[in-house]
Design a protein that fits this description.
Largest sheet: 5 strands, parallel
Radius of gyration: 25 Å
CATH architecture of the largest domain: 3-Layer(aba) Sandwich
Helix content: 40-55%
CATH topology of the largest domain: Rossmann fold
Distance between the termini: 58 Å
CATH superfamily of the largest domain: SGNH hydrolase
Strand content: 5-15%
Structural class: alpha/beta
Number of domains: 2
Order of helices and strands: HEHHEEHHHEHEHH
Shape: globular
Oligomer: single chain
Length: 293
Amino acid sequence: MRMPAQHRTVAALAAVTGIAALGLGAGPAAADAEAPTRYVALGDSYSAGSGVLPLDPTAPLPCARTLLNYPHLLAAKTGAKLTDVTCGGAQTKDFTQSQYPGVAPQFDALKSDTELVTLTIGGNDNSTFINAILSCGSAGILTGGKGSPCKDRYGSTFKDQVETKTYPAIRASLNEIRARSPKARVAILGYPWITPAKAVPGCFAKLPIAEGDVPYLRDLQAHLNGAAQRAAAETGTTFVDLAAASDAHDACRPASERWIEPVLFGTNFVPVHPNAAGEAGMAKETAKVLNLS
């Protein structure tokens, strides 16, 4: 039976409306199907998780990168597409030059469409913090853990190096990240506490630093983290402050509580670095600060 003209018009309008509604409904569905966040992880051994097993089979062996570092944990949590170029021992200079033969500069991973960047950096620059730990450890052994031989010998030397060399290098690196990936959210993490605020009984056997040098190294680390925080503020970068979260998880704590492994009697094959719990703690704090889910 033939439909009256006015009915055909109503039916046509309903069909058009239905198609339009389907088209509008496809918008959110298409958005849900968008590609995952393009995430680039940069940085040194604290980002690489050097010392934690299992190793990332795609990483150059000298980088000692683990599959359990905080970038991998963040990517697993958020579904992000991760490009992880973190590498143990990296300095700011390794962002723009090859750290090892055949290893590309880390900044080569940054693209104009990169959406998220995380990093830790600065601890290896000028070997400042490494030298401080080694120097204070050697001095502590010679004094049997008494006094403050490292502080007495070096005074403000290490902090001065952070201020005059490391801080401007971090700031320049963050600016360069912004230039290469202008659309990205960028977060630089502070380093979780290595030493307690003051010497505690039994720690010297695991971390041979004289009792007066324990707060000296803590203050140096606070200054290094402060340099990263200032550089972040000046470049529009998010700073992930791990001071509160990592307190009571330093290398002097029992194995079940610590995030950082000590020099002696630790579980990592790289001492004075985060263990798996430490990397998980760093991931959790970063996700909270960046509101990632």
